[in-house]
Every structure is written in C-alpha cells, then in structure tokens.
Amino acid sequence: MTKIPQVTTGVFGGSGFYSFLDIKQEFYLNTPYGAPSDKIVIGELEGKDIAFIPRHGREHSIPPHMINYRANVYAMYMLGVKHLMGPCAAGSLQPQVKPGDFVICDQFVDRTKGRIDTFYDGPKTNHVSSAEPYCPDLRKLIIESAKELNISCHEHGTVVIVQGPRFSTRAESRWYSGFGWEVINMTQYPECYLARELEICYANISLITDYDTGLEGHPEIKPVTYDEVMKVFKENNEKLRKLLFSVMPKISEDRKCICSNALSTAGIN
After folding, report:
1. Is position 110 annotated as part of the catalytic site?
2. Cα separation of 251 and 112, whole Å?
C-alpha cells in the first residue's frame, strides 16, 4: 500500500495544471466516500509541495453533476491539506466583469440539485456556518498577489452554481444578472462547503471566459459555447500560473481564520 504523503496545500483544477508542476509522485487513493476524480498528483510549485486533483479527471471525462465532490475533498483531508484553492472557468453575469478577468468570489448561491453536499449523514450531526463560505485570509493573499502582478481582479463576487452540464437559458441568465450576481459556474458547490466542514481553508479563483448567454442590450455578444470557454481559459492559464506561483510562498501554516475552527460551534449536543 502506498504511504500517503502529507502536504498542507492543495489545488483543484483542470488538466492544464499538470504543466505548472514539477511532478514528484502520482498514486490512486481511496476514501470512505469512494475514489477521487483521478490520481493524486504531488508536485512542487515555488519550492512547496502541492497536492493536485483534476476535478473532471485527466481526460475531462466527468461532467460537473457526476463529480464525487466528497471523495475529492476528503482525499485532500487525508493528505493533511489545510489550504485549498479552486480555480475554475466561469461565466460573467455583469458587463463590468469581462472575459479574461479574475474574480475572487466571497459568496455563492446554490442552484444545483441532488448533489451530496455534507459529510454528516448521521448519527453525528453538524450544522456548519456558511455565512462567509470562502477563507478571508486566503482570499486576501490571492487579491494582494493579483494586484502585484497587475492581473485584472475583482475583489468581491457572488458565484451562482448551476447543475450543468447544460448552459443557462436567456431567461435564467437574465434572472441571475438581475440579482446582481457576478459569476456563474457548475462546480463551486458543494466543493467549497465540504472543505469548510473539514476545517480546510478554501478560496476560489474564477477565470472569466464568457458572458454566459450574452448580455441584454448587447446583441453583438453571443451566447457561450464550450469551445470559446476552453479557448479563453487556456489563454488565461499563464496568468493563473503566475498568480499561484506568487501566492504559494506567502501561505502561513499559522491559521487564525474562521475555517480553522468551523466545527467548534457546529455540533448538536
């Protein structure tokens, strides 16, 4: 049996992330919740060991509604991960949030259905607060690094998570935009909340690839297509690499954020 290495920083992302890492080890890992999306990859980034799992599998063979989110997050927990970053492709719902921008989300709205979204199925019950679902300390580091690198970055944003794999109708997109939400994505929930249930610091970096179904009053902006999403995402991979390279050395093991003691007030006595 492969001895499970211990690392403190992890990343969920696309298969393009492999090119960022000096890969040291790859292995399969089973969890109490089944197998993660693919092999665990341990690599080095800026002199720091990083655990990486591609959400959709190495060949992008797992659609968003079929990802075993619990297995992915629990695998990171088994590795000892305390800080977890979840970069993802996302659509814009507002004209000021442009393709190529990064949004460091601080809120989410869950519009998924049927996803298993807790580790507490009983008899032990915990109600973990998600009032502030993303780690404020990790978000701050990412925002500061983005500014240093002159990356166009929005410091706040609400991501609405849809079930997928279909994209929105125009009516749905108009509805989401009307609430003032900035970002739309298919994988942020329950990934971020499951991390909080395990007291793991989690931050999202939304890479804006498109304007969802277009924008009202802007007929020149066409509805999103998968090919366009991937084209813009790949173009932004270099910016993401620079950002992660900048953030990693700044992460402190001394945690005093809300994530580090999220279970202290969550139990039923």
Report:
1. no
2. 32
